[in-house]
Amino acid sequence: MHKPHEIKLDPLPAPKIELINLIDVLITLIAFFLLTTVFNQQTSNLKINLSLAHQQIKSTKSNQLELQLDQHEKIFCQGTEIELPKLTALLQKITPDTAVIIKADRACHFQAIVDLLDLLKNSNLNKIAFAIKEK
Predict the structure, then answer these.
(1) How do residues 73-105 score in pLDDT, each as one tens digit?
(2) 40 and 73 inside one domain
(3) Which of left, alpha, beta for 70 (phi over 0: left; psi -120 to 50: alpha)?
């Protein structure tokens, strides 16, 4: 019979770590963390153009909730955008002695402010103030 022919293989090269691929991953992670920190700071600094008034009362920061309405009538709670059903659920959990500060943009329609006031009244929150700029 015929003897099978042996196949001779070359030895495999020694394994090595490709640093170029790891650098790409590292740069991507750094960019991701930088962008998320920048976006986190921007959401807390909303550009709301407050109304002007002659008199202003200073408030203390104890036990208060800040709601913002921007010029597009989107609602923000403590600087984070919140949808109406989630806001309703959040307001139901808050104690009635909590002071609610509303920061509404000048360009916001009056109806949006009235709707927000209705929502606060239905949640038994009666300590409501409007943030203003002093003239």
Answers:
(1) 899 988 888 898 898 899 988 888 888 999 888
(2) no
(3) beta
